[in-house]
Structures are given as structure tokens and as C-alpha cells.
């Protein structure tokens, strides 16, 4: 039995962070770990590969093809499944990932045999065994009418050797190669624009400690990005991590997602994290407006953001800040926003328009102002405007975004310092990604 696990290629016209943060397909590595004991399995990462799916199918001749997905990938994933079926109708196709969890009906297609709403070891094996009524899996042979209680994805030890031939490509901003892993699942912050806590849960739970230790030992890369929603979510969590790293005597570069409140409440622990290798924090400052922060269900204020930025600056921990532009901003707001970013002085900044994904509470709030239909999947990338602006034309809004993009990249981001830290080659890659983002915004201005 041969199984091919696929990550679909980038959507060229989409504006995403993949030009800066290109991570390994962690979910596929977990599935590989489940299947490898009994079957012949291979991961085919089309974000790296030049080979087409048709060519790969002819070469590998799999019995099953599984494809992971995000929202913007739906049309491409179904097209890939179609190509598989046209080559050999008997090959069973199955899909999973974020979109399959949030909106599994997106994949109810004649070319898809199974849609994994969530994954665990049991349902992964059951699908290969062609079982009926598998919890967590909608199957075409049952007209996708299965009924089951929704559960969370099981965190399974990933087999990182499964992506050996691709690992040199995986990166996080200036760190390449870089691995990703999770230390805890879930997030108690519950920001109303965020998908992650809806997938992993509102209560944070630490991953099994022995599994974590094994994963840390297996990672060969010098840099690890922890993709927990908020690595600084509790003092107990951070202290346990510090204990594990000291016990294992691992010396690496660490990057984390952290909240403003986590920075303010754990300055002493950040000093210890810095000592064991913490290099950077990805932090959501989001906006210059307290009213907007409150509307996003953020607990921090603008002054909290500024205080956190000063703490991180004093500790010499790099800040990779994320911001969201609001659809009700006018030109004055964009100007205040640019001034605010300058005041915070992050090393790197990313800016995306507010995106009310279906299933989020804010989706209903902006439903009548959407520029695209829900099934126009490729438009739902974080970088593309989805909500109609209320105080300026679409073209002017994109112009303001472009102006802000230029300002951030050439007046705020610490380019000289970044070259010193990450080297000219990595900075060239980041600048190239920035240029591609600028080009896409220019095209959107012309189209609008």
C-alpha cells in the first residue's frame, strides 16, 4: 500500500506571509508518523517542488493521496484531486487541514473520497482500512452525511525525517533553516478575529512532556519556532519549558508567539528565556486605537503595547509585530497608524486588513460589506481587502496600505541591523518577499 501526502502549491495571486514565514507541513509529518509503520509513505511538498501532481502520480503510483489545506487552497486542492482521479479513478483521495476543520463542506466533491474534520491515529488508520462511519471523517461513499461529535486534532509526534529533502527551504524571516513545533494547544485570549483558538480550544493544555522531549531531541535545525497561540500564556508553562531545555541541555535559537499581557507579566521569565536562546517574539499590537483593541476582544491597551515594546527593547529581544488595518479607517487614521508603528519601533512589521473569516463572530458583523463570496476562496488571504471600506474608495484604501507598506519597510524596519543579524542572503530573501507583496498591492490598485 502506497500513500502520497501532499501540500498544495502557493496561490500566486494571494497575499500571504509565506514569503517571509515558510514553515514545514507539520500536520503531514504527523500523519506520516502514523502511516510509516505499515505502509510506504512519501510527502510531496508542492510549495518547493517543480514537478506536477500528474507527473508525481505517474512516477509514484499511490493507492491513496492525502492533501492538506488552508481556506485559500480549496479550489486548488479539489483541482489536484481531480487530476488524481483522471489519472486513476481507483486512487482514494482525502483532505484535511484548517479549512476541513472549519468548513468541511467546502470539499464535498465528486473528486474527494474523504474529508477529515479532525485527525487522530484511529481515524487515520480506519480510513485506509476502508471502514464505514469513521468518527471525524466525511466520506463520499456515504454522501458526506456522517454525524459525529466534533473533537480536536490529536497532537502526534511528527516524523521530521519525512521532509528531509525539503528542510533547507523552511524558514522564519531571517532564520533559515528553521523547524516549528508546539508546546501547548489552545488559547484563553479568544480574540474575535483569530481562527487558531477556535480550532485548538479556549483552554490551553500542554502537550505530553515526554512527546515534547522526543520532538526537541529529533529537531536538527538550529532554530525552532514555537507556534503556540501565546507561549507566554502562563508562568507555569514558561517555567516548565525552561526546566525542560535546561534538563536536555539544548542550545538553539527560539522564536515564539507572545501576547502583550504575557510580556508585561513575565519580564523576569523573559530574561531567563533570553539566556537560553530566545531571539524574537511575534506579537500582535494590531492597532493604534483602544476602541478597536477592545472591539477585537484584546485585553491590552495602546499604552500596554508601548510598555511591552520598551521592555522587549531593553532585553534586546527582537519584535516581529503584526498589525491589522480596519475597514473604517480614513487617511488620518492611516497617518496615525504609521506614526504609532514608528513609536513602537519593531524590528519587523507585517500589516494585513481585518479579515472576518466565516465561522468567526465578526463575520456576521461585516457580512453585508463583504467584497467577495464565501466560496471565492482564493480571495480570502490575510493580505487582501475583504471588507468594503466605509470612508474611502477601494483604490484609495489599497494606496494607503501600499504607502504604509513602503513606510514600514524603508523607514521603520531595521534593515541595517537585520543584515548584521541574519546575513545578506537571508535579507535578500525577505526583501524579495516584501517586493512581491508590494507588486501584488500595485496590481490590486490597478484592478480596483
Produce the secondary structure layout.
Elements: E1 2-7, E2 21-22, H1 26-35, E3 40-45, H2 53-60, E4 64-69, H3 74-87, E5 92-97, H4 98-102, E6 114-116, H5 121-128, E7 137-139, E8 171-172, E9 179-181, E10 184-185, H6 196-200, E11 205-206, H7 209-218, E12 223-226, H8 235-248, E13 253-258, H9 260-265, H10 267-276, E14 278-286, H11 290-295, H12 302-314, E15 318-325, H13 331-344, E16 348-353, H14 361-366, H15 394-412, H16 415-422, H17 424-447
Parallel strand pairs: 1-3, 1-4, 4-5, 5-6, 9-12, 12-13, 13-14, 14-15, 15-16
Antiparallel strand pairs: 2-8, 6-7, 10-11
Helix pairs in contact: 2-3, 8-10, 13-15, 15-17, 16-17
Backbone CA Rg: 22 Å
> What is the CATH T-level topology of the largest domain?
pyruvate-formate lyase- activating enzyme
Number of E-state strands: 16
Main sheet overview: 6 strands, mixed
CATH class of the largest domain: Alpha Beta
Average pLDDT value? 90
Placed side by side, the strands forming the largest sheet appear as 3-1-4-5-6-7
Unreliable segments of 5+ consecutive residues: none
The percent range for strand residues is: 15-25%
